[in-house]
Each structure stands twice: as C-alpha cells, then as structure tokens.
Protein 1
Amino acid sequence: VQLQESGPGLVKPSQALSLTCTVSGGSITTNYYYWSWIRQSPGKGLEWIGYISYSGTSYYSPSLNSRTSISRDTSKNQFTLQLNSVTPEDTALYYCNHDQYWGQGTQVTVSS
C-alpha cells in the first residue's frame, strides 16, 4: 500500500485547510481498513486527527472534532481532510496513514 498526500502548503488564518490522500496498492473500501490523518507540529509529537473507515464512517480527535471533516472519493481511491478556521497553531507536517503504511508527509504553514 502506498499513500500520497497533496494540497496547498500555505493557508491563511481563519481559512480552511484541505488535503487529499491518494491510495494505491489497496482499496479504501477493503473491510476493516481505517484511514487516518496525523500531524506533527514543530517541536511536538505526533497528533492523531481522525480517521475514515472502510464503510465511510469518520471519527475525530475530541480536541479537533469541531473543526474537522474527513471524507472520501471511492472512485478515485482517495480520502480528504478538511480542517476549518485554521490558526498558526495548525502549522504542521501532515501525514495520511493506514496501519504501518505512511505517506511521506506534506508541510502546511498557516500564515498571513
């Protein structure tokens, strides 16, 4: 399984961040597979953002729940993170993940 993140590297404060993960070598609808977004802010550890399941249900970190949405496009084998009302504290390296498989990460900077 290979995962590849894509999306803008710079987002203005108060805007929405949108990142897409394209999956190859496996289907996002395979039973019991869960597809996550995880981030790492400068000087901090990994923070789990949320996941979307093989059936399309999503679950988010309680600390980010009010601003987060994860959706999918099964025809493209992709899943997408939207994080609303971003602040500079959302600046981080964002990864998509499934089990032991990780994307290479994409840097997102929140700045005016």
Protein 2
Amino acid sequence: QVQLVESGGALVRPGGSLRLSCVASGFSFSNTKMSWLRRAPGKRLEWVASILGDGNLPHYTDSVKGRFTIAADNANNTIFLQMNNLKPEDTAVYYCARAAYVMSGERGQGTQVTVSS
C-alpha cells in the first residue's frame, strides 16, 4: 500500500523559510519520480517541483525557481522542499505525490503553508 506523509507546514512571515518533508512507503522509491504540488485557496492544483528518488534531475515551476529546492533522501524514502524567501502567493496546502500518479489523485494528506505578516 502506497503511503505519502507530508509534514513541516506552518505560518511564516513574508521572506521567511520552511522545510517540508514527505516520507514515502509501499513502492520502489529510488526508481520513482516524485513531485511536490500545491493548492492555493480558490485555485487549481499546481505542480511545484519534481525529482527522481535517487536525487537526480530536480526541476521547478518558474514561480519558485531560485527560492525553492527539492531534494531526496533515498536511504529514508523521503523528499524535501526547502522554501526560502516565501511570499504570500506561496500560501497553499502542499502535497507530495508520485509524478506518474498525479492525475489519478494519489497524494498525501497535505501540509498547510501560510505566508502572512
């Protein structure tokens, strides 16, 4: 059974930083492309970043390039999203997912990130 458990969301001021984590189980992590997604209030689900489970080929949506960093810890089946210089428009529920299963709706329960002064 696939399980994806996100954590690390919080209320933070503009310009602040957060590190999100997602622990995965139930599949071969090192061979899997993993993604971070987010859904802002009243908006559609948005892809944020992806990486292979072995840590290779990180890539990002344009709005977070230079501010967010995705990483993978293959030994612990965990991906991370380091978010720096956060902006109010980054406010959203953040989810991790297997990239190939995003359209099927498979993802974790999400973690809330709120950027506000």
Protein 3
Amino acid sequence: QVQLQESGPDLVQSSQTLSLTCTVSGGSITTSDHYWSWIRQPPGKGLEWMGDIPYDGSTSYSPSLKSRTSISRDTSKNQFSLHLTSVTPEDTAVYYCASMGAGYWGQGTQVTVSS
C-alpha cells in the first residue's frame, strides 16, 4: 500500500527556513489525478492546508501562506518537499504530508520554532 513519511528537523530558529521532505513508497507521485499536499496543525487548533503539488508538477498554495511557502518535488526519489521561510513561533505545529483525495497520510512530524 502507499505510505508517506515526513522527514526534517524538529527544531527551527525564528526567521529561518523550515524544510521538510515527504517520501512516498508503494506508489508514484506522478500518478494521474493524485494531489500531494502539506497540512499542519498548530497546538490546540485545527488542520490547515498549506499547499499541494499535483501529479503534473504544478503548485497551489494557501493565500495566507503563499508569500512564504514553496513546494517542490524530486520524481527520481519519489519525494516532495515543503519550504516555509521566515518562520516564527506561530509556525510551531505538527506537519503532515498527504494525498487527501486518495486517503494517504503520513504520521506527521512535530516542528517547533524557537524564538
């Protein structure tokens, strides 16, 4: 079955860039009609969609995060990545990668931004 695994640092300094990678196994990120997303959940709050990179390599971002977010992919490694610039403690959250339409989710990774 398809599995997603997030990787990256669990602690980032304020003003730095948060970078996470999602490795997909058991399926291809170029599979037609599949959208690969980054979602986060700050402590005590709901899920927030950050953006996605569909099977064709195009990208879409949340308007509230668009100026600080980029999502890229490496098809040779079957990975896609998140880069969030100029982070603040408000970016502390559990970060998930997912293909929501297909029902595939990573386990999530806690990232803390220190002030």
